[in-house]
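pasting SEC-C domain-containing protein for the record, 169 residues
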Amino acid sequence: MSDMTILEQWRSIAYNQNADKNKLQRFWANYFNIEKNIYEQLLENPDEIVSGTVKELAEKYGQDVMTMVGFLDGINDSLKVPNPIETMDEDTKVNLAFDKEALYKNMVDAKADWLYNLPQWDKIFTEEKKKTLYMEQKKSGTVVKPHKVGRNDPCPCGSGKKYKHCCGR
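structre below
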């Protein structure tokens, strides 16, 4: 048995810099399909709290434990109570009680249009609400620089002097 946790094993495969690019691309394409299927099932009944051991959830969704750990890693930031993903093994009790708005925003943030455009979201949020959440998430990553005071501009302190002769010294 390896000294690495299941999460570390998952990450070593998923983010392997030395892996064949085509192989890695196929790995992710396959994973994204699996992820989409699990989210479709979860979003069908978004208020149901799905819980069990990692192994039980893997069986419930027809996946191997390693793939389930990858899924749990991805959804953890959207859960009401995060799972102990860094230390979990296949017998760790986990739950998938997610915050709907946080999950939608995290999908937007990940640029996962195949997830935030799932038809199941239409039963959860109105078109208007989805647009609002989308825009909130997009704006949250935008950095707005404050206006820079020029040397010859009036000083912002209100003295009436030029900035270079007042606070700009």
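Residues 45 and 120 are 9 Å apart (CA to CA).
Residues 138-169 form one domain.
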